Amino acid sequence: MTELPIPVIAIDGPTASGKGTVASLVAEKLGFHYLDSGALYRLVALASEKEAIDTQNGQKLGLLAQKLVISFEKGQIILNGEVVTETIRTESIGLRASAIAIHPEVREALVGVQQDFRKAPGLVADGRDMASVIFPDASLKIFLTATAAARAERRYKQLIAKGISAKLDVLLQDLQERDARDSSRGAAPLLIAPGAQVLDTSELSIDQAVKIVLDWYQSKPA
Ligand code: DC
């Protein structure tokens, strides 16, 4: 008897689309593992900033990405022995992550790390190229998006709630800059993968979006 592959739900989309929140809740509901692939690019960004590596030096960044010791433990992210869960969430690390993610050397160094998250009973993976490159055989492929204005407003509210000062127009501009770079790069650009279902969350609550993803997954033939 041939064994069925471990199921993967791939959720791709632009920055601040809510895909991380939706993906982790779907994983929780199904009892699946969860991969936040953006965190890996953010970790490379942080480590490269510490080592003062130029964001244009793909070769050096690729070597750095290969030797990082990364672990995800009980909701904490650990890089080379240091807890960096919050440190990698800043806007500046997000922008740097987008800049270093254009290099094929960096992307290749992270392929195996991402695929190792595929463990029974299943995985929900979020990022930019989950459906197109990392898990092309995913059982369900979703492109989760929202208008730039809705995304900037969500990011603004999140930052204010955390007591971090923010300007809506600056956030909108950063987000559009990041979208443009993530979508236009040569290596694994952000795109709607063939076979992906588009979910626009501009007018949806988190619970509504989670329910739609679960319904789509459950209505897929095994
Ligand atoms: O999802 P995020 O905002 O945490 O991701 C940060 C950056 O990392 C994003 O702007 C582009 C890059 N990234 C990528 O290139 N491929 C992925 N699968 C995930 C993130």
Could you list some keywords that capture this structure?
single chain; 222 residues; alpha/beta; Rossmann fold; five-stranded parallel β-sheet; three-stranded antiparallel β-sheet; 8 strands; 48% helix; globular; binds 2'-deoxycytidine-5'-monophosphate
Describe what you observe in this structure:
The protein contains 9 helices and 8 strands. The protein is of the alpha/beta class and 222 residues long. A 5-stranded parallel beta sheet has the order 2-6-1-7-8. A 3-stranded antiparallel beta sheet has the order 3-4-5, covered by helices on one side. Strand 4 and strand 5 form a beta hairpin. The two termini are 16 Å apart. The mean pLDDT is 93.
CATH architecture: 3-Layer(aba) Sandwich
Bound ligands, each once: 2'-deoxycytidine-5'-monophosphate
Q: Residue-averaged pLDDT, rounded? A: 93
Number of domains: 1
CATH class descriptor name? Alpha Beta
Structural class by helix and strand composition: alpha/beta
CATH homologous superfamily heading: P-loop containing nucleotide triphosphate hydrolases
The tally of beta strands, per DSSP, is: 8
Q: Helix segment count?
A: 9
For the largest beta-sheet, the strand count, sense and barrel status come to:
5 strands, parallel
Shape descriptor reads globular
